[in-house]
Structure prediction request, 291 residues.
Amino acid sequence: MRVYPLIAPSLLLLVCSLSRAQTTGAAPATRPTADDYARHIERLRARLSDEFTIVIQHPFVVIGDESPATVRRRASGTVGWAVEKLKAAYFERDPERILDVWLFKDKDSYERNAKRLFGRVPTTPYGYYSPSDRALVMNISTGGGTLVHEIVHPFVAANFPECPAWLNEGLGSLYEQSAEKDGKIVGLTNWRLAGLQRAIRGTRLKTFRDLTKTSDVEFYDDERGEHYAQARYLCYYLQEKGLLIQFVRDFMANREEDPTGYETLKKTLGEEDMAAFQARWERFVLKLTFP
Prediction:
């Protein structure tokens, strides 16, 4: 089983993802060509020292300051693997522009190079996606979980730009602890479970109607991380019942009629009494364990 855990979790991940954001500027008429990638790499090499290895891993360019063999392994084994599995499950379109995946070897390299290359010190110790920089910026020493999480977001932007934060982050956080099963990517239980179970016992959770209609600002304005956890484990429940892929596809297809996804969720579950469903879901969550 191939597993990508998120190491040393923290609620600081709340600020690492920019939901529904897309790269700036007008979209190009065609996808990047081989010449586009070649020119892009030339520009990168002009900015970087020889310690960095650059690998094309469509639709990304992976740049890292670990050993060349390690960078190539991460490019194919994590980035390539995640792209292949996510596209097979959900996404037809690649991001329209070349995006860079920066894999910095440790905390010092991550903070120093993020400041040098992008003009700011990261606010999360793990990694983040910056649409304005067209970059996924990672402290890869903390593990590959954040990287897989952040890979979800540019694919959501390319295929479902209207996607509400609850699903964008629900999917992203689902795969921050992931594995391969029967050739498919699956999310595993993770560190968000404990906080969600506390929230259930404390009767603090939103109803699913309220969760799905939160604005992006409302979703991210959540210091405890309960919105992330509730969205993640709703996706996890759907996955475990064999319903997640169809739900996401149906939601994308019905986005104009059902912009929050709530009606599609009810249809997918075959459920009209969502209060009864939430009670069953909470019992399901309370039985889960991690690690």
